[in-house]
Amino acid sequence: MDISDIATEEFIEVDVKTRLGKVRSLFERENPKGIIVTRDGEYDAVLTEREIIQSHVEDDAKVAALVKPSRNAPAPKVERYEDIRETARVLVEGGVKVAPVFEGDNLWGIVTADAILEAVIENLDALDVGQIYSDDPVTVNDSDGLGTVVNLLREHGISRLPVLDDSGGLTGVVTTHDVADVVIRGMTKSTRGERAGDTDRMLDIPVYDIMTSPVQTTTLGESVEEAVSRMLEDDLGGLVVVDPEDDDRVVGVVTKTDVLRALTFTEEEHMDVQITNISLLDTLSRETIRDSLTDVLDKYQKMQVMHVHVRFQQHKEKLRGTPLIYSQIRVRTTDGQVAGSGEGYGAESAFRVALDKLERNVLEMKSYRSDEEYRGQLARKLNEL
Domain named CBS: which ranges (predicted)? Predict the structure, then answer.
């Protein structure tokens, strides 16, 4: 299946010289999945609400201050007749929910994550939430301040945090959209003089005052088709995964991005590896990462690897000009998930630390299960796209 029938010519476009204040108003008023940015009439980048929230750039600054695609990670784009699974990969690796669609050299329209999910939803009955969700979720306490939320969203590159009460039970969820009004209209405007004090007070606002409650939840056994149907119906970016025997105990999160990532699973001979924030790679290449992972995971023949996700995150700290990088490797197998993470100066150093931790964690897994029947069922479903 290609995207020609699900792409649309209707989209919001702004020039790089547009004031950020105007763009923030567009996000508040129109609630788009993303905004297409142009430079001298030519496509330049996609701007998301998350980038707006994570930035401290003032309203008077121009959009150009936030959109600086590198040569290693150019602005995401797809052709009008691109394969739907390759399009899903572009969205996931670009960290966006919308990508520009080109017809030849001309910007034709956009394709959204929601449009893709609506098109493939009937094929998702081969999956259950437990096969694609993210375990070990990052959480926040309902008494923590807004500043803690913003820092966690930025540090982990995520869009939602389950909120726990003092007893550790699920009481709400806070997302980038929930904090957008506070951050966009307050934090980025209060930067000078007496307003700086206003910023501090705003960052102390307790999560309880801005979170969404009650929480939309799911369980590991629910089909992805059913979970996605609820996300689309209620315009949710994801669901909190809870223990079926204790709906107050959080075990993970499943998002639209997790579903898009599942669409990229293949039966190719080489390992299916996806990289987030690929622009941070320095001396590493995609091939080097894949080969290194293959060398490690091929030692465990009984573990059937479905997919590997490698994420890099840059910190402000530097050593002789080289930034401190956080790397996380998450491997999805037919027997569950296993991960490894680590930090180092430069992407290669961080990746090696994470890879070493991954192998140690694999060794600690008690058992592996070969499930060729499931793998074949999933492949058949996805190959129908």
Answer: 133-190, 211-273
CB 174 within 8 A of CB 212: yes
Q: Which residue has the higher pLDDT, 346 or 195?
A: 346
Nearest to 294 by CA among 274, 271, 311: 271
Strand partners, 337: 332
CB 26 within 8 A of CB 35: yes
| In contact, 147 and 204? CB cutoff 8 Å | yes
Please report, for the chain, how many H helices and E strands are present, in that order. Answer: 12, 17
305 and 370 in contact (C-beta within 8 Å)? Answer: no
Here the tokens at position 5 are 């029938």
Indicate the SS3 state at residue 254: strand
CB 295 within 8 A of CB 355: no
Residue 268 CB contacts under 8 Å (≥ 6 apart), including other chains: none
Q: Are 253 and 162 in contact (CB under 8 A)?
A: yes
Q: What is the pLDDT of residues 332-363, one digit of tens each?
A: 776 677 888 999 999 999 999 999 999 888 87
Mind listing the pLDDT tens digit for each residue in 196-220? 445 557 778 899 998 999 999 999 9
The pair of structure tokens assigned to 375 is 């793998």
